[in-house]
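User: Is it possible to get a 3D structure for a protein together with its bound compound? The compound here is 2AL. I've pasted both below.
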Amino acid sequence: MDMQKVNSMDFGEFVDVFGNVIERCPLIAAAVWSQRPFSDLEDLERHFFEFIDTLPRSGQEGILRCHPDLAGRDLQRGTLTAESQREQSGAGLTTLSGDERRRLSELNARYRARFGFSFVLAVRLSDRAAVPGELARRLHQQPEHELRTALGEVKKIGHLRLLDLLGSEPARLG
Ligand SMILES: NC(=O)NC1=NC(=O)NC1=O
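Assistant: Yes, that's possible. Here is the predicted structure of the complex:
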C-alpha cells in the first residue's frame, strides 16, 4: 500500500486499516486521520506516537491496560485480536506448559498490582524464554521509569504493525 492510497482514505477506511496499530485503541487512528496527508511511513508513525506522548498519564496507562496479557485469558479464550494472536503465537506463547503459564500469570498479577496496568512487551522482538525474566526484571523498576519502558514497547509493536500494513513496496526494478 502506498502513501497516496493512505492519504486518499476516508475516515472509515483509515480506521478499518489502522485502528489496531495500537492494540485496541482505534481512537488514536481516528485522531491521526485528521493529520493527513502523511509524507511516508515515518511521518504517519510520528503522528501515532505524538498522540501517545501528549496524553495525560491516565491516558497512557489506559493504553497499556488495553493490551491483552501475554499468554493470558484472551489467548486461552481465543479472544485476542488478529494481530495479537499472530504475535503471541509467533513467540510460542500458545504452547507454554502449565507451569510456564502459571508462572507468567503470577508475575503478570504482581506486575499489575504494582503498576496498575498490564505488562507489555513487543514479543516479535523477544521470545518465550525471555518473557518471564524480562517481566521479573521490570517488576522492580520505579513506576515512572516503567511507564516509559512499557510505552516504548507499545511503540515497537505499533511500528511492526505499520510495517506489516505499509511494508516496503516491492522494489521497482529498472
Ligand atoms: N501484553 C503484551 O505485551 N501483549 C502483546 N505484546 C505483543 O507483542 N503482542 C501482544 O498482544
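The chain has ten helices and no strands. Residues 143-166 form the longest helix (24 residues).
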